């Protein structure tokens, strides 16, 4: 766990998938069904975790070319069938959100999950009491790693996107987004991931889990 920052944040913006909730099993199954439907060899679970970063509107044209729309339909057919029943908060996530709110932070979510789906999951968990705004893919003009979702999440709050705003996430796209917006990048995950994959857009803090992140507050 990193040493605490010099000042507590005024705002914390969390990624959603695999930062506050465990959704890898759902994502892996959605990718498997998509690849199979298009007659392609599915990625392994590890390949999905290594490669499935970014919003589908950015990633699928690169992966599937002219069949991107077809691939997206298959992906979401599986997703809508399974995502709520499998939605699982990460250990300590609720206590982390409660801690952030009790410290006076503005709390938001900035995700590359489609905004309507993101907000459906948030409502399903009853986390609206802690999270003031949830911005997902297609809500802003561009998705992460562009800074637009952070700007939208802070719009109207009077909080500028600066070092007092933590952007917390588990992928390079989250850190790239934080750097692009001028916010304080916080990596959520293992130290090995930080050292091996994130050198170009380094985090200022990192925590392995929700309990460590709560301690940083």
From TrEMBL:
<dbReference type="GO" id="GO:0006281">
    <property type="term" value="P:DNA repair"/>
</dbReference>
<dbReference type="InterPro" id="IPR041492">
    <property type="entry name" value="HAD_2"/>
</dbReference>
<comment type="pathway">
    <text>Organic acid metabolism; glycolate biosynthesis; glycolate from 2-phosphoglycolate: step 1/1.</text>
</comment>
<dbReference type="InterPro" id="IPR023214">
    <property type="entry name" value="HAD_sf"/>
</dbReference>
<dbReference type="Pfam" id="PF13419">
    <property type="entry name" value="HAD_2"/>
</dbReference>
<dbReference type="GO" id="GO:0008967">
    <property type="term" value="F:phosphoglycolate phosphatase activity"/>
</dbReference>
<dbReference type="InterPro" id="IPR050155">
    <property type="entry name" value="HAD-like_hydrolase_sf"/>
</dbReference>
<dbReference type="InterPro" id="IPR036412">
    <property type="entry name" value="HAD-like_sf"/>
</dbReference>
<comment type="similarity">
    <text>Belongs to the HAD-like hydrolase superfamily. CbbY/CbbZ/Gph/YieH family.</text>
</comment>
<protein>
    <recommendedName>
        <fullName>phosphoglycolate phosphatase</fullName>
        <ecNumber>3.1.3.18</ecNumber>
    </recommendedName>
</protein>
<dbReference type="GO" id="GO:0005829">
    <property type="term" value="C:cytosol"/>
</dbReference>
């Amino acid at each position: 766990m990193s040493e605490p920052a010099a000042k507590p944040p005024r705002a914390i913006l969390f990624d959603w998938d695999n930062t506050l909730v465990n959704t890898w099993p759902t994502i892996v199954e959605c990718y498997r069904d998509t690849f199979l439907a298009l007659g392609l060899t599915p990625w392994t679970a590890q390949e999905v975790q290594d490669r499935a970063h970014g919003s589908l509107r950015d990633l699928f044209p690169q992966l599937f070319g002219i069949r991107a729309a077809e691939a997206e339909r298959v992906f979401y057919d599986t997703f809508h069938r399974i995502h709520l029943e499998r939605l699982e908060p990460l250990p300590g996530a609720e206590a982390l959100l409660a801690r952030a709110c009790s410290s006076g932070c503005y709390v938001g979510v900035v995700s590359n999950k489609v905004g309507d789906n993101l907000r459906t999951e948030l409502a399903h968990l009853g986390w609206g009491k802690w999270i003031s705004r949830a911005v997902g893919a297609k809500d802003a003009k561009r998705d992460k790693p562009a800074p637009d979702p952070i700007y939208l999440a802070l719009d109207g709050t009077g909080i500028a996107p600066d070092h007092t705003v933590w952007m917390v996430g588990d992928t390079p796209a989250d850190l790239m987004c934080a750097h692009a917006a001028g916010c304080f990048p916080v990596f959520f995950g293992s130290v090995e991931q930080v050292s091996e994959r994130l050198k170009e857009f380094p985090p200022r803090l990192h925590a392995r889990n929700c309990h460590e992140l709560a301690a940083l507050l």
